[in-house]
Amino acid sequence: PIVIVEVLSELTEGYDRGQKFLHYRSIPSLREYVLVSQRQMLVEHFARQQSGQWVLTTYSGPEDIVVFPVPESGTPGLRIAPRGRRSDFAVTLLISCPTARGRCST
Q: I need a labelling partner for 10 at 20 to 30 A (CA). Which of 18, 54, 100, 101 fits?
């Protein structure tokens, strides 16, 4: 995999951030690891640099878009959008894919 997106749950959040991420970092092809909170408007995006170092960027604002610059898969990303109440939000996975005419978006 190039990108892994995890939706955090209360039961597995510690494992997802710790042991699981440690395991994922050993996958040579993995470039992006994204954690999506269920409890608050928060997306944490870990990106592997050419040096092998992982850099964290957090997104917590309405309409924030997390972009994964992965040429092989177009330009997918996540959009955080509020839904009515302040504590209610949706995270939408945006995917671009190559087509005969160039690209398609889903």
A: 54
3-class DSSP state for residue 54? strand
Pairwise CA distance, residues 90 & 81, whole Å: 5
Taking a C-beta distance cutoff of 8 angstroms, is the pair 88, 98 a contact?
no
Alpha-carbon span 19 to 12, nearest angstrom: 11
Task: Say if residues 105 and 96 touch (Cβ distance below 8 Å).
Answer: yes
User: pLDDT for 73-88, tens place per residue?
Assistant: 454 555 555 555 445 5
How far CA 35 is from CA of 58, 79, 98, in Å, comes to 10, 13, 26
